[in-house]
Hints:
This protein is an alpha+beta fold. It contains three helices and five strands; from the N terminus they run ββββαααβ. The chain has one domain: Sulfate adenylyltransferase (Roll). The protein starts with a strand and ends with a strand.
Amino acid sequence: xxxxxxxxxxxxxxxxxxxxxxxxxxxxxxxxxxxxxxxxxxxxxxxxxxxxxxxxxxxxxxxxxxxxxxxxxxxxxxxxxxxxxxxxxxxxxxxxxxxxxxxxxxxxxxxx
Length: 112
């Protein structure tokens, strides 16, 4: 089972369903129906398993369209608005987020 890691304890992780944006994986991209271990700080010795979630929706997006994300969608992902979300992507991923594709994943907790 693969790990879906978070470096911040987002409020969305307390909801029965939540969304996250992830770049396609080089080895095997995220799959609809896949179960994943959701982990807080996965690369730290103090990591914490939050539970098991299933990917219930996957939407592939071209990042140039990502600028069209509205404030409601940004709030679903845990941000105050679209601007804050784009700043986070710039901080975490540098310029990578501006090119190529990104997956918008919706997950539902199975065990948490």
